[in-house]
Structures are given as structure tokens and as C-alpha cells.
Write a structure and sequence with these properties.
Layout lengths: L7 H28 L22 E2 L6 E2 L7 E5 H7 L14 E6 L2 E6 L15 E5 L2 E2 L13 E8 L13 E7 L7 E9 L3 E11 L4 E12 L3 E4 L7 E5 L2 E15 L2 E14 L7 E3 L17 E2 L6 E16 L3 E19 L9 E19 L5 E15 L6 E4 L5 E23 L4 E22 L4 E26 L2 E12 L20 E13 L3 E21 L13 E24 L2 E16 L3 E7 L4 E7 L12 E13 L2 E12 L2 E2 L20 E2 L2 E11 L5 E8 L7 E7 L2 E6 L4 E9 L1
Parallel strand pairs: 6-9, 13-18
Antiparallel strand pairs: 1-2, 3-8, 4-5, 6-7, 8-9, 10-11, 10-42, 11-12, 12-15, 13-14, 15-16, 16-19, 17-41, 19-20, 20-21, 21-22, 21-23, 22-24, 23-24, 24-25, 25-26, 26-27, 27-28, 28-29, 29-30, 30-31, 31-34, 32-33, 34-35, 35-38, 36-37, 38-39, 39-42, 40-41
Length: 766
């Protein structure tokens, strides 16, 4: 048959995008007719009025408290009630309830993506390009951010580059995590739950006054879960001897808030956490496996099954102390944030994923981070809100004196040891001003200057002590000015349209994993992104709606390529060395939006959707992992990724949620459900099958097919609202999906996401 070929996937996505846009127009029209847009007179807005957090959604996306609908950027605000209804337990689950957001694992490291902007480099000392802040403090450790929080108040997802106010390595956006503050009255809560896979959780929070001027809070959490990946029996095909990838976590968070004077408040906090979560830390090769790797039953061969002769470990221990001081003055307020964090990461990985001792990696890293931020918020000038601030950041990540990165070969013989250290010294200054030209029209301009100095020290030797990588020290400096500007017009009270342009910057980086030789131990160039966005937001009594269209011009994306280990001792199996590099250009555009409908106090319904086109625009010299069809083995090769989909950037995603409360047995029963659909996407490696794979040459290899996750809760609360009992379920259809998918010289490997989980919970609060 001849004729014009039709890409049905593209047609489907175009139709979906048009449907989403029509939905926005329809809601805007309905809102207009119901709020009197055509009237010549309307109540004058009060842009400087302090929002009421009891009746409105209040966010701090611009480092000040504002109504969500007044912020001229895309922000997804998620409060604790939404988080509980959706069964979200940590940052990795945010994609269930935030449109355009993906969070996946790359081995040991949690890597978020917002609107297709994510990182393809990872490792200790490497920062994401979606910035994470907890209570205003920057969190650089990509292992620690997967930890649960016991006293979560809410999460704000800021979409698009945050080059000004939250601009440290935030080309993709920022995620602001806020925990509960100490309260002036005694309050507390406790929750316990038990679920499939012997998943035991407990958390508690208590807060109250110690005196008229001093308040405290203490929160704690505990989790212990068996693994859900089946551990195959090494002696009997088709049999199993237990499970792998269990979780063990515990945390304590304390705060002491003191009124030093009538206008000076200090909050001192100490946080401790321990997490050993190996959810994505399994490397069992399933396909394209070399002949020297044992087959079944010494090796698992199917997704959801694993094998290893060394138990995996991914442990992070964190101690953190912070001090926040706020001074209210006649011109506004001054807030300082000072924090010190000490972390220890230990990783044990069976890289060959069999019951034979072929290749095991053990790595230890210590990390110390100092940070200090000063914000001056000026509100005393009529019609002007001005923020001026600065930040100092110092991070030192290194191998401990008595350890390093160890490569164990056949029979667990030490074949190589490397020691590395990386320092980052950075400072930035920023200013951001919003001026109300009229009661309805406001203009925002801002900018940030960032200056980073990064160093790396690296050396390596064989297990016998032969130097293979002479001690090498390198240093690089990166600096950038990143502006932003926006204009917002209030069509009606709490109904706005806006347009914005912003630029994001991610500093260059070194790879603590080393390189093939000192000459190859080079830094990446910084990546930059220029974003254009237009949007509409409204908040009415029954409906809250927002929609935005955006276009990103993305340059020098930082990526990881795999190079052979030139220093690999003869007769041993060594892991290829990841090399950091840059992709010249990419292009991202799309539409995303969300609508929440509240027909009554008992019923809530929400739907969010995103259509995204994220493609490499110029990457003709990508180093990808291809397939040699003749040998059936993986091979590193040069590939052209132009036009290929970027990682963690599905073309279409949908989130649906509902909650309904009915009176039952003298109390209230809340029934809630959530659905998250994702179109097919590349998880972390955009490689093609390549020119040696025949008909599959230009097809991307490591894709997760389209899938849907469905969850639900039923929670009864007594009339006093103190006691609650409930049941919950996640992935109710027991969908098999991947959280990691990649390949290496030893074959393709993947870790499966959480299967269906059913549980019960009980809670008490006062």
C-alpha cells in the first residue's frame, strides 16, 4: 500500500493538546460569565494584602506569602491532605499528583524531571537541575532526597527555570518542601500503618509552647519494609529464596522557635535521618548478556526477579543543624537562613547481578555542606514589593580517609581502589521587584548573579598498589547572570493572565567517578535554558483552574556517556567509566494545566494534564549504548540523537483525583481515589539500538511503555476528629512498570516499580 505515512502517536497527542486547550477556553468562558468580566466596574484588588491561609492556597514561590493565583508562573501546590489522600510517601511519588512531573531513579540517585528538564549525570557530589529546598534550605544530596518526612505541611512544585529567587542549579524548576512549624497551642498526631510486603510505618508529631515566648516541635518517623523483588533460587530454576530491595528508614526532626523580641523570631532546628533503600539499586542483567555471565538458575532473567551474591546496600546518614532568624521592621522584614549538614553515603552494588563473584562495587563518601542566605523583603514602598538577597554555599564531598571506591573482581579479589574529593564554593546575589502599575496590572523584573568555583582531586591504583591514575587536581570557575521578567493582569478578582520570560543556569561539574586518564578528567560546560510562558489562573468558590503554554530554548545539556576503563587490570571485569559531557541543543514546548472542582464541602474532584514535546535539537556526536545484532551484545558507539525524545519527558500525562465524605457511625468516612497515566518515555538513557542493529537502528532502547497507576483510600474519622481508621491501596491493578532501565557491557538491567500494595492505618491527633 502506498500513500502518506501517518504517525498515529503524534496525531493522538495533538488531539489531546487541542482538547486541553479547549478545556481551558471553556473554563475561562464559564468563569467570565459568572464573575462579570464584561462589567465596567469591579471591586479594586488589593495586591499587597496578606492572604488568609485558612481559606486560600498560599505559596512562597517568590520568597513571600502570596495567593497561588497571583503568582505569575506555573506552581503546583500540594497540601498535606492531598498528599495523604493520594498515598504519597516521599518525593518519588509526586508525579502521581503533579502534572508534567516525573521522578525516577538512576541507580542510587533520585532524579526529578519537570516538563522534560532533568539530569543525565549522577553520582556523589553531583547536584540535580531541579533544586530541592526543605524549609528554605537547599538539599544537594540526591540520595537523601528520597527520604520520607514525618511532619510534612505541604509541597510546592515551581515549573520552569528559577534563575532568580531559587536559582541554584534550577534549570528545570524547584521543589519546595515545607514541614510543620512549632505551634502556640499544644497539638500532636500519631499514625501507624501496616501493608503488603510487611511494610510497617509509624510517625508522630507533637508541638506546643514552653512559655509565652518559646515554642517547640518534635517529629519522628520509622519505616521497615521487606523487598518486593523476588530473589531466585541459585540451585533450582523457577524457585525463589526470599526477596530483595527492602527499606529501612528512621528520622527525627526538632524545632525550637523563640521570640527574642516583639519583632525578632529565631527558629533553631536539628534533623537526623537514616535510610537504606535499594529500590533501584539492583543490576541483574536480563538480556544481551555475554557468555561468561552465568545463566539460570545462577542469574535471574525476568523483570521483578533478581540475583546477587552480595546484598545490595544504599545507606545515607544525615545530621543537620539549621537556624532561621526573621526580623520585622518598618520597611519590611529581613530573614536569614544558616545551615550545616553532615552526610555519610555507603553503597554496595553487585554489578554483574549473579550468584557468581564477578564484579562488585563498594563506595563510601562523606559530605559536609554549609549554606547561608539573607533575604530582605521591602514592602513599605507604595505599590512595590522588592526582594534583595544573597547566598553563600560551600560543599565538600570526598572519600573517607579509611575507604574509597573499591572494585572487587572474580572471587571478590580487590582489583582497583579510587579516592576522590570535590569542593564547591559558590555565592550569588539576587534582586526581584514587583510593581503594581495599576490596581489590575503588575510588572515583575529580577535577576541573579551566580559564581561557582569547583575543584576535583582524584587518584587510583590496583589492588596490588600499582598506580593507574596519578594524583590529579583540577579547578574551574563558572559564573552567570540570569534575569527574569513577567507581566500580570487581573481580569477579575482572583483571576489573572500572565506572560513571563526567565533564564536558568546550572553550573559545570566534575565526575567523582573519575575518567580514563588525567587528560579526560574534565568539567562539563554550564547548561542554560531560556523559557517563555503564558498562563491563565482563576480561583472561584467552586472551581480553581490554571493552564500554561511554554517554550524552552535549552543549550549545553549536561549528559553522561560511557567510556571503556583503560586502566582495567588484565583478566578482570571492570565497569565502564561514566564521562560527563554536553549536548549542544534541545527544544521543549507544551501545555499543562489543572482544574479542581468543589461542588460541596463533601466532594472534591481534580484533573491535571500535560502535553509535552521534548526533543534533542542538535546532538550528532552522542555516545550511546547500541546493540550489535550479529553478536547479541551491547556496544558503545557514536549516535545521532537529533529529534529523539529526551529522558523522563512523556508526550502526555494525566492525573485524576477525587474525594467524597459521607456521615457514617457518628463520624465521617472519606473515600478518595487517584489515577496517574503516563505515555511511553525514556527513563534515563536515550540511546538508540544503533547502526549495528538493523531495522531497529533509530529506535530508542530503554523506554517504559505507557502505563496507569490507580490508588485509593477509605478513612473513617470519629465525631471528635481525634481518632481515624482506614484502609488504602496503591497500584491496585498490579501494573508492572520500571523505575530504572539501562544497560552496560554485562547486559541490560532494570528495576521494577512497587507492585500492588494493600494496607491499614490508624491515627490519633489532638
Amino acid at each position: 500500500m502506498t500513500g502518506i505515512a501517518v504517525d498515529r502517536s503524534r496525531v493522538r497527542h495533538a488531539i489531546a493538546a487541542k482538547a486541553l486547550l479547549r478545556l481551558g477556553v471553556a473554563v475561562a468562558t464559564i468563569t467570565a460569565s459568572g464573575t462579570g468580566w464584561a462589567q465596567t466596574a469591579r471591586p479594586a484588588p488589593t495586591p499587597q494584602a496578606e492572604p488568609d491561609p485558612t481559606t486560600e492556597i498560599v505559596v512562597t514561590a517568590q520568597r513571600r506569602a502570596e495567593r497561588l493565583e497571583n503568582v505569575p508562573m506555573s506552581v503546583t501546590a500540594i497540601n498535606s491532605a492531598i498528599i495523604e489522600r493520594a498515598g504519597v510517601s516521599d518525593l518519588r511519588d509526586i508525579g502521581k499528583i503533579a502534572s508534567g512531573v516525573q521522578v525516577n531513579l538512576s541507580g542510587a540517585f533520585t532524579q526529578p524531571a519537570i516538563r522534560g528538564v532533568t539530569t543525565l549525570i549522577n553520582g556523589n557530589g553531583t547536584e540535580n537541575n531541579v533544586a530541592i529546598y526543605v524549609d528554605g534550605f537547599y538539599e544537594p544530596n540526591t540520595v537523601a532526597i528520597g527520604m520520607e518526612l514525618a511532619n510534612l505541611a505541604g509541597i510546592e512544585v515551581l515549573k520552569g527555570p528559577q534563575g532568580t529567587l531559587y536559582g541554584r542549579n534550577a534549570t528545570g524548576g524547584a521543589i519546595l518542601v515545607n514541614t510543620l512549624a512549632p505551634s502556640a497551642t499544644f497539638t500532636g498526631k500519631a499514625d501507624i500503618s501496616y501493608a503488603t510486603f510487611d511494610d510497617k510505618r509509624a510517625s508522630a508529631f507533637v508541638s506546643g509552647p514552653l512559655s509565652d515566648a518559646i515554642r517547640f516541635s518534635v517529629a519522628g518517623s520509622y519505616r521497615k519494609r521487606d523487598g518486593y523483588l523476588k530473589l531466585v533460587d541459585p540451585n533450582a530454576a523457577g524457585q525463589f529464596v526470599g526477596h530483595s530491595n527492602g527499606v529501612s528508614q528512621r528520622a527525627v526532626r526538632t524545632k525550637l522557635e523563640v521570640d527574642l523580641t516583639s519583632n525578632l523570631v529565631a527558629t533553631l532546628a536539628y534533623n537526623y535521618s537514616y535510610s537504606n533503600d535499594t529500590s533501584g539499586h539492583v543490576y541483574t542483567p536480563y538480556t544481551y548478556v555475554p557468555s561468561f555471565i552465568p545463566g539460570p538458575p545462577r542469574r535471574a532473567t525476568r523483570l521483578g526477579e533478581v540475583s546477587h551474591d552480595t546484598d545490595p546496600k544504599l545507606a545515607n546518614t544525615t545530621h543537620q543543624g539549621t537556624l532561621k532568624v526573621r526580623l520585622d521592621t518598618g520597611f519590611g522584614n529581613v530573614t536569614t537562613y544558616t545551615g550545616y549538614t553532615s552526610r555519610k553515603d555507603r553503597s554496595v552494588l553487585d554489578f554483574d547481578g549473579t550468584y557468581s563473584a564477578i564484579s562488585t562495587l563498594i563506595s563510601d563518601f562523606d559530605q559536609d555542606t554549609w549554606q547561608h542566605t539573607v533575604d530582605v523583603n521591602v514592602t513599605s514602598i507604595d505599590r512595590l514589593n522588592l526582594i534583595v538577597g544573597g547566598n553563600y554555599y560551600h560543599d565538600y564531598t570526598r572519600s573517607p580517609d579509611d575507604s574509597g571506591t573499591l572494585n572487587l573482581g572474580t572471587n571478590n579479589t580487590l582489583t582497583a581502589i579510587a579516592k576522590a574529593g570535590s569542593k564547591t564554593k559558590a555565592y550569588s546575589f539576587y534582586a526581584d521587584a514587583t510593581y503594581s502599575l495599576t490596581d489590575a496590572l503588575s510588572l515583575n523584573v529580577g535577576g541573579r548573579y551566580s559564581h561557582d568555583v569547583k575543584t576535583i582531586d582524584y587518584r587510583a591504583q590496583t589492588g596490588a598498589g600499582v598506580v593507574t591514575f596519578v594524583p590529579t587536581h583540577k579547578e574551574a570557575t563558572f559564573q552567570k547572570f540570569t534575569p527574569r521578567a513577567s507581566i500580570r493582569y487581573e481580569l477579575a478578582p482572583r483571576t489573572n493572565v500572565y506572560a513571563s520570560i526567565s533564564r536558568g543556569f546550572r553550573s559545570g561539574s566534575y565526575n567523582l567517578g573519575g575518567a580514563g586518564s588525567p587528560a579526560l578528567l574534565t568539567n562539563t560546560k554550564p547548561e542554560t535554558i531560556t523559557a517563555y510562558e503564558i498562563g491563565f489562573k482563576t480561583a472561584r468558590r467552586l472551581v480553581r483552574f490554571d493552564i500554561a503554554g511554554f517554550y524552552y530554548d535549552y543549550k549545553d545539556l549536561q549528559v553522561s556517556v560511557a567510556l571503556p576503563n583503560l586502566n582495567c587490570p588484565a583478566g578482570t571485569t571492570c565497569v565502564p567509566i561514566p564521562q560527563f559531557a554536553n549536548a549542544p541543543k534541545a527544544e521543549i514546548y507544551g501545555i499543562d494545566g489543572k482544574i479542581d472542582i468543589n461542588p460541596s464541602s463533601r466532594l472534591n474532584f481534580g484533573i491535571g494534564a500535560a502535553w509535552l514535546h521534548a526533543r534533542y535539537k542538535d546532538f550528532a556526536t552522542a555516545t550511546g549504548l547500541g546493540l550489535n545484532a550479529a553478536t547479541g551484545l551491547n556496544v558503545t558507539q557514536s549516535q545521532d540523537w537529533k529529534g529523539q525524545q529526551m529522558a523522563r519527558a512523556p508526550d502526555f500525562t494525566v492525573n485524576v483525583s477525587s474525594a467524597y465524605t459521607v456521615p457514617v457511625a457518628g463520624g465521617a468516612l472519606m473515600l478518595s481515589s487517584n489515577l496517574a497515566f503516563s505515555d511511553s518515555y525514556v527513563i534515563s538513557n536515550p540511546s538508540l539500538y544503533g547502526p549495528l542493529a538493523g531495522a531497529f537502528a533509530n529506535k530508542q532502547r530503554y523506554r517504559q511503555e505507557a502505563f496507569t497507576l490507580i490508588g485509593g483510600n477509605a478513612t473513617w474519622t470519629d465525631a471528635s476528629k481525634h481518632f481515624s481508621l482506614g484502609v488504602f491501596g496503591t497500584n491496585l491493578t498490579n501494573k508492572r512498570y520500571r523505575v530504572t532501565y539501562n544497560g552496560a557491557a554485562l547486559g541490560d538491567y532494570s528495576a521494577m516499580g512497587m507492585p500492588r500494595q494493600i494496607g491499614v492505618r490508624a491515627g490519633y491527633k489532638f
